[in-house]
Amino acid sequence: MINRIKQKPELKGYLVLMLHAHLPYLRHQDHNDNLEEQWFYEAMTETYLPLIEVMNRLTSDKIDFRLTFSITPTILSLFSNPYLQDKYHAYLSNLIGLADKEQVRLQKKPALLPLAKRYAERFRELLTLYESCKGNVIATFKHYQDLGRIEIVTSAATHGFLPLMKTEEAIKAQIITAVRDYERYFDQKPRGIWLPECGYTPGIDRILKQAGIQYFFTDSTAVAFASPQPARELAAPLMTPYGVTAFPLDPESTSQVRSAENGYPGDFNYREYYSDIDPAAGFKYYRNTGKGSHKEPYQPERALEKAVEHADHFLANRQKQAAHWERWLDRKPVIVSPYDAELFGHWWYEGPHFLELLCRKMFLDQQTIKMITPSEYLEEYPIAAVGNLNESSWGRNHSSEVWLQGYNEWIYRHLHQAEERMIELATKHQHLSRHGKLSASFLERALNQAAREFMLAQSSDWAFMMDAQSDVDHAIRRVKEHLGCFHHLCDQVDREQVDEVLLTVLEEKDNCFPDIQFRDYVSIQKLSPIPIIPNLKEWETLLEETKHRPNVFMLAWEYPPKHVGGLSRAVHELSEALVARDEIVHIITTSYDGAPSFEKMNGVYVHRLPVNHSGDTHFYHWTFEMNLAMTDHLVRWKENGGRIDLLHAHDWMVAHTAREIKTSYGIPLVATIHATEWGRNQGNLYSDLQRKIHHLEWQLTYEANRVFVCSSYMKEEVGRIFNLPPDKVSVHPNGIRTQKPNIETMNRPDLVAKQDKVIFFIGRLVYEKGIQILLEALPKIISQVPQAKLIIAGSGPMEGELRSKAAFLGDRVLFTGFVNDAYRTQLYQSTDVCVIPSLYEPFGIVALEAMAHRKPLVLSDTGGLAEIIRHGVDGYKALPGHVDSLAWHITDMLLQPKQAAMMADSAYQLLQQHYQWGHIAQNIQNEYQKLTHYQPAIQVKATI
Fold it and tell me: Glycosyl transferase family domain: which residues (predicted)?
């Protein structure tokens, strides 16, 4: 009989277990911050001391484990604060006394009494542990790092959300200060960093490289959507072009623990998070029984048994992951499982026990996956693929949404102003020469403290709390207090009168980062007054040209050459028509490839701003970034001597900037509502996104001094759904420039035969445009006019669905996609009837285009569209959404070309009378002048 030797399972991959330890800075001996003191005491009792216990037991049993901790500079300052160390010792002693009293109180409750006794024992164990390390938990963490059992990485100094910082100097100062602070505690530089909230935006990697950081952690989407797409997917780190390695977080293992619905901590056998008596005491007697009022007593033994099951389940799933990846990967895969450290113990009482079980199983069972630290992995695999990471965070929707939305957006204007002021002062005083009455050493103290106060105001915790609607007043107070102290110090430096008593008080109260250096904020390069203006001479010329008369600033997310919808063309035509009437008009819009960042275009000053965003950013979230850029630019313009006499905001996308600039500087605001979310969805606002947009539209109309709409239909709609008084809303239709008739007829497109009777639609391929109704009507039309051919120009989210719907019609339907101006004109000239079958249309500038080309027109009898023509005189109005009505009117146009041509001529005359931009601009200018109280003698420069 042959003896078979059982082979050791082959190693399939590695696990990086990442615990992020963070608390906001607690102001030293501030009696107003009892809330934060409580956070610290609970975290020490339930998380950090229990984790030290776990590491002690594993080491005592010779278990070779690996854990990675990111410990933020702010929580390090709390761990090392003698005041808090003494108070925490007293806190534990008080808990022991309360636990003893609980045993007396619960004598007649046998189900709960054992738990009270267990708590009394537990608090005594923690006090003994705390005293054994002399209150210095940092030394214990350092000890285990020196042994190679754990790796500690740093984070930004005050956990500021880096992608929303305006300047490179501010990001650099947060990182350099953190690196310097880490070295003070651990006698070495950090190899890695946990970017706060995993917030990444391109360029941060370059700053990390300069700071000596070798690697950082990113949300999974940063690598999953990197460019080029990484061949190793999420199974291995990716190196950025600046040579810093990014470890992507694993969503599967994260969700198994953190998921609110299915995560381990929600199991009914585990202890409930909420306290049963005074929350400050932390006595919890019940398990996660359910959402109702009925509660079952906590049974520790059952909970620990469940932790064993969950450790087995977690390990088995990681083994499957590693085995799956290892089959096709050219190296051992690494799974990065990240969690907030306080999940283990504070939120999930049994979490430390689960962690210890996992470490033991991975070591003793000799399974196919092994714990590792990031540095060890990079030593084994120093070469990685290179790619450009996607902008992302591990927050909601993998974006900046949590830290930049309605509840907290207001803080960024103030933070960005403080950034610029800190850079200006640091650059001015970088050589520390005597500043008037201030000595160099005294000046340095004041500037260093100003830097501390600014960094503390930048903490991402405050915006997070505002978003979560948790302790909001506390968060607002902290932001305002730190910024107030910052500006107070800066004002005193500017006046050369620093109050030494106040400075000393602030140094004692906010005493983190003893090695902070204000010079970290010295300007990397001299900033121009307005970055998008190419040179100082052009800047001076612009100010001189615009200083004598009112300046109108239009806010629009699109402007030529950027064309997405009709808004771009409408704003373009109106702005140039106003300039022809001697108005000074600026357009604040977004950048476009190939277009200059600033130009004077046909008399209009066009400012095109870059918007920071990732490739997969949802349009709604992108608008937040756009508003941030617009607000910053207008503030910079204003503060550098530029005039802003009136704001004209176009639709909800620019509402935040319009409101901020209006309220900050008292500038009159006009809002044009081109369409409403309510109307686009026929009054059905089902999704959260739809409701958010509707609210922004209401907010914009509420803030505006005047509201412009393009039709009487829209006036009734906005008045009704936004509860606006009729005299606040004015109707100003869209217009069009009519070109001189082109004597030479352009050739037909190749795909249109001479005998074809062309039905033309142009516009966005979305539901409310009604193209689906037109496709349903087409067979009825072809039955009467066999030569009928439908051309659909444009693109949009319904294109695939519409192509499928039209497939059976063969060559009778042609999709052109987006068309340029020349091809659009060619299509119009080839057209026999233009059709606009919209279900909802506030105006319909496409109708004016058809009228300008003298083409017969069939449109839906809906909204503002119905007001443009007279039925049977200038064209036909079909019943909206009615297939037979649309088919009959189109067929009649095709069968009676002479009558159709007469209606087209009548429509052209109507266009000349009512829809020319010169006339529209005159009416709008009259409204502007009522708001600005400016009555010049008008000299029209050109005829539109």
Answer: 750-909
Please report whether residue 193 resides in a domain: yes
What's 839's DSSP letter? S
Residues of the chain with pLDDT under 70: 1-9, 28-33, 275-282, 291-292, 366-367, 433-437, 525-539, 613-617, 739-748, 935-944
At 434 the pLDDT is: 59
Quote the pLDDT of residue 943.
Answer: 37
pLDDT of amino acid 616: 57
Same domain, 594 and 695: yes
CB 670 within 8 A of CB 646: yes
CA distance 591 to 625: 13
The residue written with tokens 């009416």 in the block is: 923
d(CA 865, CA 848): 10
What angle do helix axes 82-105 and 34-43 make, rounded to 10 degrees?
Answer: 70
Asked if residue 368 lies in contact with residue 12, where contact means CB atoms within 8 angstroms, the answer is yes
Tokens representing residue 324 in the block: 């799956």
CA distance 403 to 399: 9
Cα–Cα dist 122/625, whole Å: 49
Residue with tokens 């050493």: 441
893 and 787 share a domain?
Answer: yes
Separation between Cα atoms, residue 838 and residue 675, nearest integer Å:
13
Query: How many Å from the N-terminal Cα to the C-terminal Cα in the chain?
Result: 103
Q: 516, 555, 519: which is closest to 427 by C-alpha?
A: 519
Same domain, 636 and 720: yes
User: 496-532 burial string, b = 16+ CB within 10 Å, else e?
Assistant: eebeeeebeebbeebbbbeebbbbbbbbeeeeeebeb
Kindly compute the dihedral angle of the four CA atoms of residues 319, 322, 325, 329, in this order, to the nearest 10 degrees.
-140
| Cis peptide, bond prior to residue 561, ω within 30 of zero | yes
259 lies in a domain?
A: yes
- Supply 861's token pair: 């009898």
Would the CA dihedral through 860, 863, 869, 871 be positive or negative? positive
Q: Are residues 446 and 557 in the same domain?
A: no
Q: Are 552 and 464 in a shared domain?
A: no
Does residue 532 belong to any structural domain of this protein? no
Q: Would the pTM of this model clear 0.90, i.e. be above it?
A: no
Q: What token pair was written down for 295?
A: 């509660």
Give the count of alpha carbons within 13 A of 419, CB side only: 23
How far is it, in rounded angstroms, from Cα 758 to Cα 552? Answer: 43
| SS3 labels along 893-914 | HHHCHHHHHHHHHHHHHHHHHH
Given this model, what pLDDT does residue 940 score?
A: 45
Q: What amino acid is encoded at 291 in this protein? A: K
- Split into its structural domains, the chain has a count of 4
Torsional class of 854: left (φ above 0), alpha (ψ -120 to 50), beta (otherwise):
left
Same domain, 411 and 504: yes
Strands 67-71 and 13-21: parallel
Burial class (CB in 10 A: 0-12, 13-18, 19+), 921: buried
Of the candidates 398, 424, 448, which is a domain's last residue? 398
Give a yes or no: residue 844 inside a domain.
Answer: yes
How far is C-alpha 908 from the geometric centre of its chain's CA atoms? 46
Domain that holds residue 587: 547-731
Both tokens assigned to 393: 């965070």
- CA-closest candidate to residue 194, choices 307, 309, 72: 72
- DSSP class of residue 134 equals T
> Which of the listed residues 398, 427, 455 is the one where a domain comes to its end?
398
Residue 66 is encoded by which pair of tokens? 């690996």
Check which CATH number belongs to the domain holding 882 and give it.
3.40.50.2000
Q: Closest by alpha carbon to 828, among 745, 944, 769, 755? A: 745
DSSP state of 299: -
Beta-bridge partners for 348: 344
- Give the C-alpha separation, 535 to 541, whole Å: 10
**Token pair recorded at residue 884:** 């037979």
Q: Helix 440-457 to helix 500-509 angle, to the nearest 10 degrees?
A: 40
Is 417 found in the same domain as 379?
A: no
